[in-house]
Design brief:
This protein has 588 residues and is α/β, with parallel strands linked by helices. The chain is built from 21 helices and 13 strands. The chain is 52% helix and 8% strand.
């Protein structure tokens, strides 16, 4: 089905252009915040009236005289200084609901007419280190962006930009060769915790021992020249790290796979060519011994041009160099129309300078969109960055295991009669879902306090509440079987949908807003807009269910109400499972 909001926007904008006598005006149709005033509101009249210097209410009247939406809405109403309020016709709601029901995979939502190739860069764990809570937000927000763009119909290329190259690996391989030589005979058995400890020891030794520092530098040279022993050791370090983070992705239901990895090492042989191109274009210039680019508009506090350093005075490349190589590769080799980077807000300046450099180099034009999606910090109960009681970094694996353990206790308390295997499955779905949903439900730009108690609550905008809402709807099927009612037969027999009760009408209107919720959330890269919609939908359904009997409804009404239940369940499942990557158990 064609997007309803787009239809309204197109028709009203055309009427507004005719009434205003100019083409640069738009209707600006939004879902009404107050249902008492209508279902949709036209907000663009006043802006257009200001442009042509006329009375907005009179302009609104001229728009209505030219507007043809009788097939969609009741008679529009002008409110205040020039708003136009719209109420959808019941016949339109009935038609849309049937269309959604007959399309269980996409719920009546059409793919975008012109798909783009969208590269999403997210997660990016470091090799030889365990993933910690700082990796959570990039990983799950990035995965949601990839999922939602894919559902919209775009070609999505996931890119996991893993830190597996550079000076730190010279330190680590030097340390392993000199301090733990026995491990070289069987490097594949190095646990990730040992690797992290070895790395910390290597870093400390490099800072304290000039001879070891020189040895580490020689190991970097060996790594870059593909010395067989050094490469063999490096490969085992990378593989051992993957054995750590890949199961975490699977536990989080994150869609990153090994084939999505484009580590820093992938770009190592491309850096020299990037440097040559930037030099040839007179963009890379020497400054205090280093090679720098000075992107337009970036200055220091003192007003001096701010350098984007791409090669240090000792010849070493930096993250900026690799990021430039990756960006160029994604445009030229992957054919990206859009590249989305998902990192914390502290890297904002870096990406602003990266994007401007790419523009100056001629790699991007109006066809290629570069987006930096930022997020705030996860905080502990004290309002400070989340740490262990000892002040150390919280390991992501341990956090998720604790979430599942706490969820198991909740399941045991709420439904002790479930078989143990089902309790385990529900605990995993609830625990992991609670961590993800709590992150999604917060405005990504803000910091938020991590609280197991709040995120595992069975009321409020939480994963357990949403999962329970879904399970409660699905329980209707089990209750129907007890009454010898065949739900599939009743649903397939529907010819029309009854929306006589206010609660039925409210639920119907909320159901058809799902498409707009997805579109708005995707456009703004804000999963909290989707979670807010799902929560509002579940509450609207709860009000409907409390006043409108379903299984005990008269035979003429029952199929219609069963359809409203079915569509609510499908949307909750689709939004949670398909887009947010959160399981929705059939029974809680």
């Amino acid at each position: 089905m064609e997007n309803l909001l787009h239809i309204l926007e197109d028709r009203i904008s055309e009427a507004l252009r005719q009434a205003a006598g100019r083409s640069d005006v738009a209707a600006m149709v939004t879902v009404s915040r107050n249902p008492a005033f209508g279902d949709y509101q036209v907000n663009g009249i006043m802006a257009a009236a200001k442009q042509i210097k006329t009375n907005p209410r009179q302009l609104a009247e001229q728009v209505l005289r030219r507007l043809q939406i009788d097939d969609l809405c009741e008679k529009p109403e002008i409110a205040g200084p020039g708003f136009i309020n719209l109420r959808l016709k019941t016949s339109l709601l009935q038609q849309r609901l049937l269309g959604m029901f007959q399309d269980p995979q996409r719920l009546g939502i059409e793919p975008v007419p012109v798909p783009k190739t969208i590269v999403v860069d997210y997660s990016g764990p470091n090799i030889a280190k365990e993933m910690h809570v700082g990796h959570l937000r990039s990983t799950i927000i990035g995965d949601w962006i990839a999922r939602v763009h894919q559902f919209e119909g775009h070609r999505v290329i996931r890119q996991n930009h893993i830190g597996d190259w550079g000076t730190q690996f010279g330190m680590l391989t030097a340390y392993l060769k000199t301090q733990v030589p026995d491990i070289l005979r069987n490097p594949q058995e190095m646990p990730i915790a040992d690797l992290e400890r070895f790395y910390q020891n290597a870093k400390q030794k490099t800072e304290q021992d000039p001879a070891f520092e020189q040895l580490a530098r020689s190991e970097v040279v060996k790594l870059h020249s593909h010395d067989p022993d050094t490469i063999r050791l490096w490969q085992h370090i990378v593989e051992q790290s993957r054995r750590h983070y890949q199961p975490i992705y699977e536990l989080l239901r994150v869609t990153l796979r090994p084939e999505d990895e484009r580590p820093e090492s992938f770009y190592a042989d491309k850096l020299a060519d990037v440097m040559k191109e930037l030099k040839d274009k007179a963009l890379a210039v020497e400054s205090e011994g280093a090679l720098c680019i000075f992107p337009k508009g970036f200055v220091s506090k003192e007003g001096a041009p701010l350098p984007f350093i791409i090669q240090k005075s000792d010849g070493a490349y930096l993250y900026a160099t690799t990021d430039l190589a990756a960006l160029r590769y994604r445009i030229r080799q992957l054919g990206a129309d859009k590249i989305v980077y998902v990192t914390d807000a502290r890297q904002m300046l870096h990406f602003q300078m990266l994007f401007e450099t790419a523009k100056m180099a001629g790699w991007t034009d109006s066809r290629v969109e570069l987006v930096h999606v930022t997020f705030g910090t996860m905080l502990g109960p004290d309002g400070r960055p989340f740490k262990t009681r000892e002040g150390g970094t919280v390991k992501l694996k341990e956090l998720l295991e604790e979430a599942v353990e706490k969820a198991r206790a909740v399941v045991e308390e709420k439904n002790p009669s479930l078989p143990d295997s089902q309790k385990d499955a529900v605990a995993r779905a609830v625990g992991i879902g609670a961590v993800k949903y709590a992150d999604y439900a917060n405005n990504r730009d803000t910091d938020y306090i991590f609280s197991f108690e709040k995120m595992l609550a069975m009321d409020g905008n939480t994963a357990p509440y949403m999962q329970y809402a879904y399970a409660r709807i699905r329980s209707i099927e089990r209750k129907a079987a007890e009454k010898d009612l065949n739900i599939d037969e009743e649903l397939n027999s529907i010819k029309t949908i009854s929306l006589a009760e206010p609660a039925e009408l409210d639920l119907a209107k909320k159901l058809i807003q799902y498409e707009q919720a997805i579109e708005t959330a995707a456009a703004q890269y804000r999963p909290n807009l989707l979670t807010s919609y799902l929560y509002d939908l579940s509450q609207t359904f709860s009000r409907f269910y409390s006043v409108c009997p379903v299984l005990d409804a008269p035979a003429a009404l029952r199929p219609s109400r069963l359809l409203l239940c079915e569509l609510t369940a499908r949307i909750i499942h689709h939004g949670m499972d398909n887009l947010l990557g959160i399981e929705t158990p059939e029974q809680m």
